[in-house]
Amino acid sequence: MRVNKNWKQIILFLLPALILFGVYFIYPLGFVIVTSFSKWNGISAPVFHGFKNYIELFQDETFRLSMRNNIVWALVLGFVQIPLAAVMAMILARKPKGWKFFRTAYFLPNVISQVALAMMWLAIYNAEFGILNNLLEMMGFEGLTRNWLGNMDTAFPAVLVQQVFYIGYFMVVILASRMGIPDSYYEAAEIDGANVFQQEFYITLPMLKPILITTMTLALAYGMRHFESTYLMTNGGPAHSTSVMGILLYRNLGALNYGESNAIGAILIVFGGATIALIRWLFSRNLDADDGIQ
Amino acid sequence: MKKKVILMLITTILALSVVMITGCKKEDESKADQPAKQELITLKWPTIWVGEDSKAPMIAALVDEFNAMNEGRYKVEIEANPDYDAYRNKLNSQIAAGVVPDLFVLNPDPTSLSFYEGDLLMDFAEELSGSWGDNFVSGAISGATIDGALKSIPYEVGYTPVWYNMDIFKAAGIPDIPKTYDEFFDACEKIKAAGFIPTSQMTGGTNAWTSMLWFSHIAASIGGPDVWEKDITDPVFVQAAEILRMMYIDGNTSKDAVGGDAGVSGGHFLAGRSAMFINGPWYIGRVKNDAPDVFKATKIGPAPAVEGGFEGAQIGFPQSNLAAGATDDPAKKEAVIAFMKWMTLPENVKKISMDAGSMFAVKFGVDDGEDVDLVQGQFMNAVNDSAFVNTHFQANFATDVVAEFGQALARMALGKATAEEFIQQIADKID
């Protein structure tokens, strides 16, 4: 193995970053994992508890439901939100009339705080005065009105749907990448007789593959650690139907069950890491094969 | 090149060290030249009594007054935390990390009282054993003492009788508040017929507050003063759960009660839509300011009694205690005690109570000529007229069990669980 002759300087310059990384990431990570094997209320000293926290968690119906909900979140964000964002980016990249307005309009929710958005959706879904129920009543569908966030059958889809349509962030990222594809590719395809759909399918999609993998990975990671809008809109209810692992973690913190809380944290880390690794492995195999296109 | 880089780094480090050392020396020298002067002690107080909270204006005024009186010596800085649940969770995390705020508000329950373990909180037992302790109502100090340690000072107390909107009762043709649950459900029918919502309920928030209080009232009425000594699977609680379930069906509460939080349940009462609601005296200021018509129509009274059970039950509990982080610095401890004494001074507590309607564990007198708020007066009467006072569900169970109450209640309210199953879900969490 060849050693870089400047290794001392490299280490010297990397040291501050490594120290910070160690203090603010490696140490807390190790702390979470070690204490996840303990019974600890945060005040007294932790008592070694073996795998009991993990066993109890996997035996708990609410935890299993929360885990399932996290998987659904990840899949929906990765495989519904990203394709929606990609389609929208492809449309806007063709610069139809008012494309700049739509680009801004779709991105706008990303500059509004999650709390404000959650409050807005609470008002939309409210059973007594909500816009959605009012709209249904006006259209003569009174039978469809319900307490959207207070019904075990509709609460989870209701929270999920409001999040899926916030495609702006990923749309802008994909759009930036799409704008980098030379127009000459499309002009050549047009001369060869390719229609718009063929151009998008055979030119845009393969060219966007790296950015699609990146955005999909980010969306999946977000789905696995999802917390904010569920906490704000339903707090995991009714009857745990919208619960996610982050909510259980937070609730256990509040109850001073730090051992159990950290066990959930460790599962989240392992689960999230494994999902991301799997996705990257699956897609990167194809990416390597498609390298010729790049 | 290599030598140059290393030389540059060493020179920079040396230069920085010289600057820091000389800077520190100069500072020390300048301090030594000055005559001894007491340093200003600043105490940070993250508190929930800010923003919309009815106590906020008077608390802010008292803190300002304290700071003015102790200018140059002590300064209390309020850190606003208007979200009660977030405040509680933030405190838990901070305390677990060993970072205890200088001053804070502790809601006493089995979970938060575990902060008494270890030496993170300041112990006021010695100070309060003297004349300062005489300011408090009987039993308050002993109630906050665990194993001889008094690590939170009893402050605000809560009593939660029922708020009745008598305008709605009148519109529904009901002459008086219901005394039994038979009368209660008859009243519900009439209230619905008049176009109003009979009760405000909620399954959301961290504790399903309003419904948890209804449940506590019903359980007290069936099980009596010692009800919380019974196991949660006792038939008393199943019977109480069944009555609570009935409050959720047939339009006896609002459509958004399942999943609704305190804003939803309180909102219906404030808007004059619901006829019966439960909350503590701290809500008086809110109703008075935000819904003056409802305030005028409000009658505070006991919850109905279950036939064959105990009459005159009332729910009361220590709501908020004052606490502080332990310190080895005697001057800082002195500052904390000075502030605690200031906040628990009977005339100061009276100011907050008269302004916000809240009730306290500190005794103060009200002169004949003084204008006591009408609703606050009714609160006092409701407490005085009660046969016994029980704590609520939340005061008797850990935070995670309390959180499960709301989730289990939602299941029962949606018809997915019976009263027995509701109780069993809570019992499973306790296990």
TrEMBL record, chain A:
ABC transmembrane type-1 domain segment(s): 67-279
Name of the protein described by the UniProt record: Sugar ABC transporter permease
Membrane topology listed for this record: Multi-pass membrane protein
GO cellular component: plasma membrane
TM spans (from-to): 12-34, 71-93, 105-125, 155-176, 207-224, 263-283
Record-stated family: Belongs to the binding-protein-dependent transport system permease family.
Organism: Candidatus Thalassospirochaeta sargassi
Annotated SUPFAM superfamilies: MetI-like
Matches recorded under Pfam families: BPD_transp_1
Domain of life: Bacteria
Matches recorded under PROSITE patterns: ABC_TM1
Location(s), subcellular: Cell membrane
Automatic annotation (TrEMBL), chain B:
Organism from which the protein derives: Candidatus Thalassospirochaeta sargassi
Highest taxon of the lineage: Bacteria
Cellular component, GO, one term: periplasmic space
Name of this protein: ABC transporter substrate-binding protein
Family: Belongs to the bacterial solute-binding protein 1 family.
Matches recorded under InterPro entries: Bact_solute-bd_prot1, SBP
Compartments in which it is found: Periplasm
Pfam families membership: SBP_bac_8
